[in-house]
Amino acid sequence: LLVEKGAELESKDSYGWTPLSWAAENGRGAVVKLLVEKGAELEFKDSHGWTPLFYAVCSGHEAVVKLLLEKGAELEHKDNSGLTPLSRAEVCGRNAIVRRLLEKGAKFGNET
């Protein structure tokens, strides 16, 4: 409802998170889909350099990861630590997501 009434899609909270970041972190696939369809920025970075894909990856929300990838989320984006979503998936122990990212073309060894 707020989106339909013109709410700012890129508004940030005190952590630098957007509504899309929160939806991805909490596995809210329908909200992620709505926000992306309304024009939310897939590659918006918070203060750690994390995009919504990083949050979905580390939280283990496979369906949201799949949705973000289908909508064009960047596989090789690096956070402020020089890690990619694939590296974060490995660090967070998200093996199914590691496989999905590899299937989509992510590569190990792209870290700084």
TrEMBL record:
Keywords: ANK repeat, Repeat. ANK repeats lie at residues 15-47, 48-80, 81-112. InterPro entries: Ankyrin_rpt, Ankyrin_rpt-contain_sf. Pfam families: Ank_2. This is Ankyrin repeat protein.
